[in-house]
Amino acid sequence: MSITGIFYSFNSTKTAKTAEKIIEEFGADYQIVPVNAEELTEEKFLSFTNLILGVPTWFDGELPNYWDEFVPALEDLDLSGKTIAIYGLGNQVEYPENFGDAVGIMAELVQQRGAKLVGLTSIEGYEYESSRAVIDGKFSGLILDQETQARQSKDRITDWVKDLKSQFS
After folding, report:
1. 8 A C-beta contact, residue 102 and residue 143
2. 25, CA 20 to 30 Å: which among 33, 52, 148, 158?
3. Which CATH number belongs to the domain containing residue 142 in this structure?
4. How does 82-121 read in b/e, with b if 16+ C-beta sit within 10 Å?
5. Residue 2: its pLDDT value, please?
6. Per-residue model confidence (pLDDT) at position 169
7. Do residues 145 and 126 touch, judged by C-beta distance below 8 A?
């Protein structure tokens, strides 16, 4: 089993707490290394075969500034041989027209660079108008709504991590 990097902003409270829950759910048999996305380098990003990216949606469907600043470097990377899963937080009630868009934006970027995207999840149980995160009727990662569906997050994380364990080598 290879080491998995989980990339998120250490300063983004809800995304960081979610990362901790994901790491806990993987359990002691898996080595998950937290990496602060605000201090990300190309070398650090490429040093992992399996990556989990924490990408909350900001404002009206945007990437957080720390990920947005890494996009030019990301666009120059060859991600062939990388397996990437993405999770993010969004608010389907206040932002129904771009719910979880940042997950979709990041999914498009990493797939265009040759990465294998895993961890797609069902859109069932959510109410929103549109989302760039939807690919072929599924979310392109785990999207949690801590504002309106916090009680469902634990089960969603458990199911998602179970799927990732079968996808990561």
Report:
1. no
2. 148
3. 3.40.50.360
4. bbbbbbbbbbbeebeebbbbbbbbbbebbeebebebbbbb
5. 77
6. 75
7. yes
CA-to-CA distance for 12 and 87, rounded, in angstroms?
13
State the Cα–Cα distance between residues 70 and 162, nearest whole angstrom: 29
CB 152 within 8 Å of CB 125? yes
Query: Can you give the pLDDT at residue 1?
Result: 59
**What is the domain range of residue 91?**
4-167
In this prediction, the residues of the chain whose per-residue pLDDT falls under 70 are 1
Report which DSSP code applies to 115.
P
For residue 109, CA distances in Å to 67, 116, 120 come to 11, 11, 15
What is the identity of the amino acid at 31?
Q
| 50-54 and 32-36 beta bridge pairing | unpaired
Please give the tally of structural domains in the chain. Answer: 1
CB–CB of 82/118 below 8 Å?
no
Yes or no: say if 149 and 93 are a contact pair by the CB < 8 Å rule: no
Beta-carbon count within 10 A of 135 CB: 16
Q: For residues 73 and 107, is the Cβ–Cβ distance under 8 A?
A: no
